[in-house]
Amino acid sequence: MTRRALSLSAYLAYARSASAPGETPDWPPRPSGPLVWGFAEDRETGRALASLGARLTAQRPEVTVWLSGRVPSRPGLMTVPMPRDMAADDLRSLRQLRPDVALWTGQALRPGLLSALAESGSHMIALDLADAPFPAEAPRWLPDPAPAVLALFDSLYTTGPDASRRLRRLGIESGRVHDATPFLDTEAPLDCSDGLHEEIASLIAGRPVWLAARVRPDEARDVLMAHRQASRLAHRLLLILAPADPADADRIAAMLRRDQMRVCDWENGDMPDENTQVLLAGGPDELGLWYRLAPLAFLGGSLTTGGTGEDPFEAAALGAAVLYGPNVGAHLGAYSRLVGAGAARIVRDGDSLGSAVSHLVAPDQAAVMAHAGWDVISSSARLVDRVLSEICDTLDARAED
Question: Where is this protein found (predicted)?
Fold first, then answer.
């Protein structure tokens, strides 16, 4: 028995001794067809797993997908409790469920759970492995179980070459380690009418345009202040303002009237002309159109005190450079990845938003950021395609056995 195997055995022996009695999770009966079980460490990877699962079931309706951890509810996917790592009853039941494929995300390892999946015969895939330590709940006097646990995986997809080198230094076979990218949500881009897009694009051709998307009423004042400030340098600048809630459109329209701004009221059938300063949308329903027209987008819910922000990938996927405020706790990982790629920039208030718009509304400036954002989205989409191909090949091979 190797040293790594001994380290895992020592952890499992400790886990059995430390196991506290508890009620076994109420998992549903195992489906008769293929079962894929995904485990999410955080909200961002949970969303990405849900999107992957939705694509898998669309391609393979006979496959059942279970998701555990920090995952959103999605039609057609089943959310089930996370097995406890140090509960013998949980792990015994887990072995009996025999998932065909197990998807694991992130650094935090659960050696008991993962060893039970391996013993059940699951094809195991790890995603989003970064160049960082792999913590496991174990006393310091135990040998580190991480190398032995990582060796249980059939495929390990990292966030880049540095993370791959870390795995190889831990003794993981090179053939199992794949240089990849962060595992991100890859929902299909928001749709819009091609004819309408062409019509509006022709009406505003040659004008600099920016978008304030999903804006809350208490942010509208900062957005309008920023637009006035940026318009001093770009006199033909057009703002497309889309409230988060259609019910807020009238309140924002009143602000625009008080400021004596020339407004195109989209919900009333108005069309923008050369004199329009603000196109007021009725809500977020047509963001697919607005993102395609505006190379620069501020995302609302981020300047609001107590706000949690909006998903920045829906803007980046349609070629918009992203501006956002400091309150984006619900999507912090997504914003951090876009910032790291140079595709997003933070602002603090109306004044800094105006300065950012003045600088970035120039086509060449926005294009650099937009291209960086597209690279992030497209790289993750390719990763999802690779993982889906591996899952389908595994299920096909098992069906032939």
Answer: Cell membrane
CATH number at 3-21+31-183: 3.40.50.2000
Q: Measuring CA to CA, which residue among 340, 303, 295, 302 is closest to residue 322?
A: 295
Residues 10-53 have pLDDT tens digits of: 888 877 776 666 666 788 999 999 999 999 988 889 999 999 99
Distance, in Å, from the CA atom of 147 to the CA atom of 168, rounded to the nearest integer, reads 10
Mean pLDDT of 116-144: 89
Q: Which of 240, 244, 227 is nearest to 270 (CA)?
A: 240
What is the mean pLDDT of the segment spanning 216-240?
95
Q: What are phi and psi of 343, to 5 degrees?
A: -105, -5
Residue 374's H or E segment, with its range, is: helix 363-400
Q: Of the CATH numbers 3.40.50.1860, 1.10.630.10, 3.30.70.1150, 3.40.50.2000, which one belongs to the domain with range 194-378?
A: 3.40.50.2000
Q: How many secondary structure helices (H) and strands (E) does the chain include?
A: 14, 14
| Structural domain boundaries in the chain | 3-21+31-183, 194-378
Same fold, 3-21+31-183 and 194-378: yes
Please choose, from the candidates 222, 252, 196, the residue with its C-alpha nearest in 3D space to the C-alpha of residue 348. Answer: 222
Per-residue pLDDT at 291 exceeds 60: yes
- CA 324, CA 328: separation in Å to the nearest integer? 8
Q: How many CA atoms lie within 13 A of 152 on its CB side?
A: 27
Work out whether the CA dihedral 263, 319, 315, 75 comes out positive or negative: positive
| Token representation of residue 77 | 């996917």
Judge whether residue 297 has pLDDT over 90. yes
The residue-averaged pLDDT of 58-87 equals: 90
| Dihedral pair phi/psi, residue 327, rounded to 5° | -100, 80
